[in-house]
Amino acid sequence: MSEFRGRRLGLVGGTSWVSSAHYYRVLNQAVAERLGGSHSAPLTLWSVEFGEFARLQHEGDWAAVARILADAARRLVDAGCEGIALAANTTHLVADDVRAAIGDVPLLDLVDLTADAVADRRRVGLLGTRFTMGAAMFPERLATRGVEVVVPPDEAQQRVHDVIYDELTRDVVSEQARSDYLAVIDKLAADGAEAVLLACTEQGLLLHDGDAAVPLVDTTEVHCRALVDFMLGDKA
């Protein structure tokens, strides 16, 4: 039997470490399930320092955020990675900068993959950081598939955002947060959302599909399926 090596994936993480740990576990479990035995994912993780990173995000210094992520991606390519992924939804706000930094090496884009995954819906709700909920990236990309995106009202957006940064990125999962999220999801469903995107990696630690009255689409799960396909190639 020939030795399996796969294609090496470069994962830009640390945004937060909880997100990266979740990605690492899901990717390795999926590879083991697909190949059997003791196989694991051929990946290299570059973790940024989240305290500084979160400060730059909240100060609106997206140029600095882009520089950090582009530098990390270049270093992963230099280390032999054949594809790059950003282990967070919000970091895709500067995906074009990362893409430009890595040349011909593919960036496996979470937003495009999610848009494809929900192309059979007409309207979906969006939960993520305020940066993600307030940005055009999901609405514009999903609109090309004929899907409308709705977001919660301002006060609910703030609660969703605060749970992410004050709790989930610190590995805190509370029943109060779960209850508050489900209430927000119920209102999105009342506004016609046929499904709701959990568009922040850490939200998948709080809720799962089946917990709400409408389907919950975890963008991390969508992303990881594609990342496993990339790593395994024709061995999948």
Structure description:
By secondary structure, the chain is of the alpha/beta class. It has two domains: 9-110 and 222-235, Rossmann fold (3-Layer(aba) Sandwich), CATH 3.40.50.1860; 111-219, Rossmann fold, CATH 3.40.50. It is built from ten helices and seven strands. It has helices at 17-35, 50-59, 62-78, 95-101, 110-117, 130-133, 137-143, 154-166, 175-190, 219-232, and strands at 9-13, 43-47, 83-86, 123-127, 148-150, 195-198, 216-218. The strands form two sheets. It has a four-stranded parallel β-sheet. The relative contact order is 0.16.
List keywords for this structure.
alpha/beta; Rossmann fold; 2 domains; four-stranded parallel sheet; three-stranded parallel sheet; 10 helices; 7 strands
